[in-house]
Amino acid sequence: MKRMDTVDSLLLQLEQYGEEHDRNKKTREEKLRNVSREMGQFLSILVKGCNAKNILEIGTSNG
User: Fold this and answer.
1) What contacts 24+ positions apart, CB below 8 Å, involve 56-63?
2) In the chain, where the domains are located
3) Can you tell me whether residue 3 is helix, strand or coil?
4) pLDDT score, position 2
5) Which residues contact 32 (CB under 8 A, 6 or more apart)?
6) Residue 62: which of 40, 30, 23 has the closest Cα?
7) 5-60 residue pLDDT tens
8) In whole angstroms, how far apart are CA 17 and each of 10, 43, 53, 62?
9) From the DSSP assignment, how many helices (H) and strands (E) are in the chain?
C-alpha cells in the first residue's frame, strides 16, 4: 500500500470514528472536537499558502 493510501485510510477511519462517537451525544461537551475534513483542507491551504515555518497546535479534544 502506498503511503498516501495509508494516510487517506487512517484519516477516513478517524473521521468515521468521530462521526460514530458523536452520533448519540446530546451536548457539545460530550462530543469530540475534531475539525471537519473541509476545515482541515482549508487549514492546509492556509499553512502552505503562507509558507509557514512553524505551526502550533493546541489540542482541545482527543488528540
Assistant:
1) 60/33, 61/32, 61/33, 61/34, 62/32, 62/33, 62/34
2) 3-49
3) helix
4) 81
5) 18, 21, 22, 61, 62
6) 30
7) 899 999 899 999 999 999 999 998 899 888 888 998 999 999 999 998 898 888 76
8) 10, 21, 31, 11
9) 2, 0
